[in-house]
Amino acid sequence: MTVPRGYVPAASAARENRRAEKGALQYDVYCGRRLFLQGENKKMSISSEKMIERKEIMDGNILHVTVDTVRINGTDRTSTREVVWHKGACAIMPVTEDGKIILVRQYRYAAGTVMLEIPAGKIDRDGESPDCCAARELEEEAGVTGELISLGYSYTSPGFCNEKIYFYLARNLKKGMQHLDEDEFMNIEYYTPQEVEAMIDADEIIDAKTIACFQKARKYLPGL
């Protein structure tokens, strides 16, 4: 039997772990190799990165794409960051008087499939507040107006994009006027919170903003 270089038997690794509990380094075993794990007193310093050069790639109607060279953690080291810049968006979970959630079903070209989602849309112009965007998108897509309750926000893909999406619950709904964009086609559907939860668990709802907003809105939803 060939013993891999750096191999540590499980029993020996356990003893080393116990001995190392008071030290700066601990050992672990993965695939028969010795790994060094930094202790609590060896945490890496995390700080912001400074952009020192930017290359413009695309300036579109929705997205702005750049390739940035950044200086890492105040050192002399640099790295490249490919970034998608986005003005932000709002997503709204409308709840009817009888406790049904309004969802819209539409085709998503980038995903290549039809998705069931809550009404949502991007902040269209500079200076538009998230509240105004949410009210506008709620009526445009769901054809209703209502009282908006802020549920906070999240970043959708912070590894490469700065898009921040603001979540809302809408209640005390009143009939408005649905007016979709020329290239938008969607159906309005109604589901109980229990049905929505079951569809999330079954991967029938696979839209991230809908799943996140549902979790944030749970305390307002009947029967959950």
UniProtKB/TrEMBL annotation:
The protein's name: Hydrolase, NUDIX family
Domain Nudix hydrolase span(s) in chain numbering: 85-215
One BP term from GO: nucleoside phosphate metabolic process
InterPro entries according to UniProt: NUDIX_hydrolase-like_dom_sf, NUDIX_hydrolase_dom
GO terms, molecular function: hydrolase activity
Source organism per UniProt: Anaeroglobus geminatus F0357
CDD domains documented for this protein: NUDIX_ADPRase_Nudt5_UGPPase_Nudt14
Reported cofactor(s): Mg(2+)
Keywords noted in UniProt: Hydrolase
Pfam families per the UniProt record, alphabetical: NUDIX
